Amino acid sequence: MKKWHLHDFNTVLEELETGMDGLSEEQVNERLKKYGENVLPSEPPPSIVKIFIRQFISPLIYILLAAGIVSLFLKEYIDAGFIFTVLLLNSIIGTYQEYNAAKSASALQNVVPHLAQVIRERYKAEIDVKEVVPGDIVILEAGQRVPADLRLIKTNNLEIDESLLTGESLPVAKHTDTLEGEDISLGDRKNIAYASTVVSRGSGLGVVVGTALQTEIGKIAQFISAPAEANAPLVQRMEVFSKNVALAVLGAAAILGMIALARGIEAQAVFFMAVALAVSAIPEGLPVGLTVTLSIGMNRMAQRNVIVRKLVAVEGLGSCTVIASDKTGTLTHNELTVKLLQLPDGKKFVITGEGYNPEGHVKPLEHAVLDEQDKISLRRLIEASVLSNEAAFYQRGETWRYQGDSVDVAFLVLGVKEGIKQEELLKSYPQVGVIPFDAQHRYAAAFHETNGKIRAAVKGAYEALLPMCKTMLNEKGGEEPVDPDHIEQMAFKISEQGYRVLALADGLIDKPADSNPGEAANLDETSLTGLTFLGLVGMIDPLRAEAKAAVKESIGAGVQVNMVTGDHPLTALAIARELGIAQSIDQVITGSELAKCCAETESDKFSSIVGSKTVFARVEPLQKQLIVKGLMDKGHFLAVTGDGVNDAPALKEANIGVAMGSGTDAAKETADIVLTDDNFASIVAGIEEGRVAYDNIRKVIYLLVSTGFAEIVLFTLAILLGFPIPLLAAQILWLNLVTNGVQHIALAFEPNEGDVMKRKPRSPEEGIFNPLMIREVLISGAFMGIVAFGLWAYLVGYLGWHEFAARNSVLLLMVLFENFHVLNCRSERKSIFRMPFFSNRLLIYAIIIAQAIHLVSMQIPFMQMVLSIEPITFVQWFTTMLIASTVLITMEIFKLFYATNLCHKKC
Ligand code: ADP
Ligand code: MG
Fold first, then answer.
1. Are 282 and 60 in contact (CB under 8 A)?
2. 630 within 8 A of 653, measured Cβ to Cβ
3. What 3-state DSSP class applies to 727?
4. For 117, phi and psi rounded to 5 degrees?
5. N or C, which terminus of the chain has less Cβ within 10 Å?
6. pLDDT number for residue 882
7. Contact at 8 Å (CB) between 710 and 788?
C-alpha cells in the first residue's frame, strides 16, 4: 500500500484517476467490482453451538444433571433417560428461541442506514457507506464516522477522534499539507482521515485511498461494532431471582426430605422427591421466556419505526414520564419554504410556491409595488443566502434534486425562483473559505473573492448576526447605521406567527495579507465585522400531521412532552401552542436563561424551574444536558431526542436516548433507540410497545412462578400431613418443561390490552414483584396447590385408590390447571371475558396442543411407562376439567375485587 501522507493531494488525485468533481457512475461500478464493497468485518453473532452450551449454565440444569447422574447410579435408567431427554429438548428449544432472537436483533440493526456524503459527477450525493470506492471524494462533517481512509484535500477546523485506532483520547486537528517521514506513526499522519474514526468538529473533504480491508482499521481487523450487551437488565435481575429461588428451594427440599426420611419413607424415593420439588419451584422457562418476549417487543417496535439498540430501552420506555423532543424534523417535517422577506426598511414581500419546487416568485405584500431599488436589495439578500450555503439543489433531467440542510435548501430554492443559481454565482465569486453552520453559534458564513477583495456572506439567527453588522440597507439602497432594536422588533413580529426567522448580512473585507489565492488562510469568525445587515427571512416548516395526536396521546398516558429547539422562543411558542405543548410564554425558557439559572440557584430549585417549563428555546446542543439533569433530578424518567454530534452527551445521560435515523453517526451510536422516520409519533408508539412488552413479561413470570408455587404447596401439604409423594420427578418435569413450556411462550405474543396508553407510567423503581404480582401468585398458586392436594388426599386417603391411578389423576388436574390458568395470565386486571378471546390465536393453539400432548401420551405405552400414566374415561376427564376450571373463577373474582381496586388507587 502507498504512503499517501507523503504525497501532495493533487498527485494522489491523479494517481487514483479522479478529480475534485468526483468519479463517474461508470468508474464507480468498475471500482466496486475491482475492490468490492466497503465493509469491515463485524463481530459475528454468537454461534448456535455457543448458545446451545449456554443453555446448560443454569442452577436448574445443574440440579437436574446431578439428579440424572444419581439415577444412573441407582440403575433407574428410565428416569435417568427421561431427565436427559427433557434436558436436551429444553436446551434445543431454548437455543432455537435465543438464536432467532439474536438473529432478528442483529437484522434490525442493519435497518438503520449508514450513509456517506460524496461528490460524484460534480454533485453531492448521499450513498450507503458500502458503496464508497477508492477515488471517491468524501465530504466530512461533525458527528460522522469516516467511511474509508482518506487523504485530506480541504479542512475547516477539522478535528477527528481517533481513539479507536490510536488510543489517543483527544481529538486530532487535521490539515492537508504534505508530510515527511515514511514511517511516522498513524497518529501523526495529520493529512489522513482513517475509516471508523469520528469527526468531532469542523468539516473537510478528502479522497478515498483505501476501503474495507485496505484501510488501517481493516488491516488490524479489529471489530468495530460496539460490544454487544450481554443481557437486558431485566433478564439479569431475573437470573439473580432464579438463583435465589434455587438456593431457597434446595434448603426447603432438604428440610422436607428430612421430614420424609423421619417418617420412614425410603431414601431413594426421598431423593427423587427432593429433585422433583427443586424442579417444580425453579422457574426454568423464565430466561427463555424473557428473551423471547423482549425480542417480540423489539420486532413490534421496529414495525413502528423504532429500532432498539440497547435492550434496556424495551422495558425503560414504559417508565418514561417525560419526552424532551427536538422541534425541527421530529415535530415538524423539516421541509422549509421561504415565505416572507423583510428588508431593514420594513418593506415585506411574500414568496409564492411550495416546498422544493422552484416555481414561484417574490411579490410585495398588500398593494405595495416592487420598485427597481427593492429588486436590487432583494437580489443582494438572496445572493448572500446562496453564497453562504452548504447545500445543493440541482436539476437532473426533468427532476430537481436536493441535498443538505433544509434551511440551506430552502434558500437555494428561493434563489432558483429568482433566477440566482448557485453554480453560476460561484463562478463570479470563487469561494475561498467557509464557516459551516453549527447549532452552537447559529450562523453559517462563506468568503468569496471579488475584485481583489473578499466578500463575506452570512446567514443565521439575527442575534448572532447583529453584533457583526455596522450598517443596514436603507430604502434608497444606501447604508445607514444598524438599529438592533428595530430589527429585533421586526423579528419578533415574524416569529410570533410561527415562522423560523433567519437574518442575512454581507460585506467586503480586506484580504488577509499573507493569504495565497484560493486559500482560506486566516478567514475565520474574527473576520466577520463591519458587515451590512440585509434583511430577514421567514420560513415555514409544516408540522407533522401525526404530531398533534401523538402529543395528546402521550399526555393522556401521563407522559409530559417538552420541546427543545435552537429556534427563537416566539417561533417555538407558536408551534408549541399549535401542538398543545405550551399555552403561554411562562412555559418557555431559553438556553442562556437556563445556563444562568443553573449557575446561580441550588439544584432543587433549578430542577423545579426546569420541571415547570415545557418549551426550551435557543438551546445549544450542549445545554440539553442541563435540561436532562434538571428533569432527572426532579425524579423524571426521561427520553431525549437528538441528532447532532453535540447531542451525544445528553443522549447518553438521559434514561432513554433517542436518535434520529437521519442524524449523525455519533448520535446514533450513543442512543438507546433510533427512529428510522425521525418522527415524534414513533417515540409515542415505542412507549406503547414498551408498555405492552413489559406487561407480557409480567404475564410470563406470573404464569411460571404461580404454577411452580402451586406444586410447592401441593408437596408441602402432602409431606407435612403424612401423605405419599403426590407427583413423581418425571411428572413434574413434564408439567414444567413440556406442557407449560408449550404455553408460556405464547403469552409473549399477547397484543396490547387496549388501555396501556390510558395508564400512568410505571415507576422505574417498581419491581416485577409488586403487591399485585405477589398477591396474584400467592392466591392462584395456593388455590391450585390446595385443590390438587385435596384431590390427592381424597383419592388415596378417602377412596383408597392405588397411588399410581391417583397420581395419574392429579397430574391430569395439574395440566388442566395450567391450561386454564394461562387464560388468567392473559391480563392481570381485565376479566378474560372482556377480552377478545381469539386476539392471540397462538395461545389458544398452545393450550390445545398442551392438553392434546398429554392426552395422547396417556395412550402410548412408552409414555405410559416413562410418566407412570394410564388412559382415563371421558367422564373422568370431564370432571377433572370442571375442577380445574375453578381456578379461572377464583382469579376472575380476584380481578373483580382486588386488581381493579388496586388499579384505581394507583393509576
Ligand atoms: P432546531 O433545534 O430547531 O433544529 P437549530 O439549532 O437547527 O434549531 O437552529 C437554530 C437557529 O440557527 C435557527 O433558528 C436559525 O436561526 C439558525 N440556523 C439553522 N439552520 C441554519 C443554517 N443552515 N444556516 C444558518 N443558520 C441556521
Ligand atoms: Mg436543526
1. yes
2. no
3. coil
4. -100, 125
5. N
6. 97
7. yes
Q: Across the chain, what does the average pLDDT equal?
A: 89
Atom of ligand 1 lying closest to residue 618 CA? 10
Which grid coordinates belong to 836? Answer: 377478545
pLDDT over 50 (residue 690): yes
CB 212 within 8 A of CB 248: no
Q: Which three cell numbers stand for residue 290?
A: 424473557
Q: Name the burial class of residue 904, with classes exposed (0-12), middle (13-18) and buried (19+) by CB atoms within 10 angstroms of its CB.
A: exposed
Distance (Å) of CA 359 to CA 254, 351, 424: 85, 10, 19
- Grid cell, residue 325, equals 423532543
Helix (H, G, I), strand (E, B) or coil at 393: strand
At 582, the amino acid letter reads A
pLDDT tens digits, one per residue of 473-491? 998 889 999 999 999 999 9
Q: Is 352 helix (H, G, I), strand (E, B) or coil?
A: coil
Ligand 1 binding pocket mutation candidate from 411, 442, 660, 678 (most atoms within 8 A of CB): 442
763 to 636, 652, 662, 774, 854: CA distances (angstroms): 10, 21, 32, 17, 41
CA 398 to chain centre: 38
Q: What residue's CA is closest to ligand 1, atom 8?
A: 566
Q: Provide DSSP, 796-819.
A: IIIS---HHHHHHHHHHHHHHHHH
pTM strictly above 0.85: yes
pLDDT given for residue 515 in this prediction: 52
Environment class of 889 (CB within 10 Å of its CB; exposed 0-12, middle 13-18, buried 19+) = exposed
> Is the Cβ–Cβ distance between 559 and 614 less than 8 Å?
no
Q: Which residues are catalytic?
A: 326
Residue 651 has pLDDT above 90, yes or no: yes
Q: What cell does 882 get?
A: 370442571
Residue in 687, 680, 807, 790 with CA at minimum distance from that of residue 735: 807
CA torsion through residues 702, 707, 709, 710, sign: positive
- Please spell the DSSP secondary structure of 331-372, one letter per residue: TB----EEEEEE-TTS-EEEE---TT-----EEESTT----H
Ligand 1 probe mutation, 385, 406, 409, 437, most atoms within 8 A of CB: 437
H helical segments located in 110-168: 163-166
Per-residue confidence at 905, pLDDT binned at 50, 70, 90?
very low
**Alpha helices per DSSP H over 263-285:** 267-281
Q: DSSP characters for 53-74?
A: HHTT-SHHHHHHHHHHHHHHHT
For ligand 1, atom 27, which residue shows the shortest CA distance? 460
- Spatial neighbors of 713 by CB under 8 A, at least 6 apart, are 781, 782, 784, 785, 786, 789
612 vs 628: CA distance, rounded Å: 14
pLDDT band for position 228 (50/70/90)?
very low
Report residue 833 as a C-alpha cell: 371475558
The 10 Å Cβ neighbour count of residue 424 is 12
Residue with cell 433544509: 406
pLDDT in tens, 779-816: 999 999 999 999 999 999 999 999 999 999 999 999 99
Nearest-5° Cα angle at 653, 648 to 655: 115
pLDDT tens-place string over residues 199-225: 988 889 999 999 988 888 887 765 544
Q: Could you tell me which of 811, 789, 785, 783 has the C-alpha nearest to residue 724?
A: 789
